[in-house]
Amino acid sequence: MGWRIYLLLLLLATGSGTKAQDKAFDEAYDKIWKESAHKDLNASLADADSLYRSSVLPVSRMRCLMLIARLYQQSGDLDQSIEYALKIDKLAAEAGNYTWLARANGYLSGLYRINELYDKARSHSRKALAIIPKIKDPEQANSTKGLMLQELAYTAMAEENYREAISRLREAGQSIEKMQHNREVNTMCNEVMLGDNYRLLDRYDTAVIHYQRALTAGINLPSFYETGYAFRGMADSFLKQGDLQKAKEYLDKAERFADETKNLQLKDATHTLSKDYYARVKDQEGLAMAREKSNAVTDTLLNKRAHLLDKMYGQLEQNEITNKLRNDRKDVVIVVAFVLLVSAIVFFAWYKRKRRRELEQVKAVLERLSGNEVVPGPVEAATDFDETFDLQEKDTAGNQGSVEKRIMPPETERILLDRLAEFEKSGLFLENGFSLSSLATQLDSNTKYISYLVRKYKESDFNGYVNELRINFAIKMLRENPQWRQYKISALAAESGFSSHSQFAAVFKQQTGLPPSAFIRHLAEELG
């Protein structure tokens, strides 16, 4: 434990005046969160736990629990982070503290969203929004509202609704401006998020402005992980604009920050960008090093997330078993043999139909993958070549039409289609975090051309296209390699390029009509 933390805790323990204790607590809290958390996460967790044990007031204890939850989140231990957030929720409910009740639910919403458990995330978001109007203190209300609006912005970003996210963040900024405490930290977070959304809308100049504002807001703060996100965002913006010199300048800063921090999400984002940069400049040595770093972080994140999901699914299964036993005890008196017999007959008939239908679905999927792939038809001669990326044009009445404009010469289109076909055979799409810009780099083209080709010939957006390739790969391996059928779903997801068990399962069912476990079971029966 650092000597300054020790002295501050000693002051708290001596029972000095209330004001002196409050000041000591605030100093200890800021020392942990704004300084030591970036340098030594384990030591910060120990200090935060000591601060929690020395605190008496419910508000101080809840602040410490939130600090511990955030530190665990930085380390990638999201299950521990959720556990501590649930403790805050319980303590706030017992104390009747609406501010912390809203904060706890807003934070839980974010944690569940990160794990792609969107139903649980929305449930906690709704609960937090309902609580905020009950907060009487203006400072607390503005702070909580700002944080909740940022969480809603994160949800909109996850759904690729970047304009809605920007609207939420601007509203959050108005609440943050009214805050008296921690305004700089919250402003920095808000500006980084604004930069990310404008960058995702390809408005790179505006994105850079917001990243610079974030760095300015945090200029008097100690090393803070949002600084690394700002550097990473600026590097990506300059890379997308083709300014390789500035991209490398800010990428180096982001990499130094990522190497020093314990924040696994920042490490993952920065190392992924490094792969894009080194692929762009054709630096094989740098690319290999970036891949090694990225793979190490990705493996850690996948293991932690799989552990959390396994734990949560295990709890759900246990709850289902408990509920079933409870209902059985209630119903045993009224259940008669006739009802059981009829139910069994109905169930057996339903099960046979269901099993037959699922087997037919498996056969249809296998036949589709075994057949010849559709080869794009010949490209028509260019008659109105237009360099702008505009898939829609207006008719003479000013209404939006659906006539596609050609955005590249026919020869370029043929060459890129050939390269796209080679890409589909390469397996590069299995790389976790593979992006549209990565594909454009591999094909020695740009994102606008590639988006156009995917939309026109694959009848999908980029994410849907890559997900289909990954699911087809998984099915092929399940069909040809019996050992794959013994893998856990989380392992299949990782091998197929997906970042989570839940995402893989959702996309697999969407494309095949069956959950992975049911598909594998019927596939084993079909193949013998």
From TrEMBL:
<keyword id="KW-0238">DNA-binding</keyword>
<dbReference type="InterPro" id="IPR019734">
    <property type="entry name" value="TPR_rpt"/>
</dbReference>
<dbReference type="InterPro" id="IPR011990">
    <property type="entry name" value="TPR-like_helical_dom_sf"/>
</dbReference>
<feature type="transmembrane region" description="Helical">
    <location>
        <begin position="332"/>
        <end position="351"/>
    </location>
</feature>
<protein>
    <recommendedName>
        <fullName>HTH araC/xylS-type domain-containing protein</fullName>
    </recommendedName>
</protein>
<dbReference type="Pfam" id="PF12833">
    <property type="entry name" value="HTH_18"/>
</dbReference>
<dbReference type="InterPro" id="IPR009057">
    <property type="entry name" value="Homeodomain-like_sf"/>
</dbReference>
<keyword id="KW-0812">Transmembrane</keyword>
<dbReference type="Pfam" id="PF13424">
    <property type="entry name" value="TPR_12"/>
</dbReference>
<keyword id="KW-0732">Signal</keyword>
<keyword id="KW-0804">Transcription</keyword>
<dbReference type="Pfam" id="PF13181">
    <property type="entry name" value="TPR_8"/>
</dbReference>
<feature type="domain" description="HTH araC/xylS-type">
    <location>
        <begin position="418"/>
        <end position="522"/>
    </location>
</feature>
<keyword id="KW-0805">Transcription regulation</keyword>
<keyword id="KW-0472">Membrane</keyword>
<feature type="signal peptide">
    <location>
        <begin position="1"/>
        <end position="20"/>
    </location>
</feature>
<keyword id="KW-1133">Transmembrane helix</keyword>
<dbReference type="InterPro" id="IPR018060">
    <property type="entry name" value="HTH_AraC"/>
</dbReference>
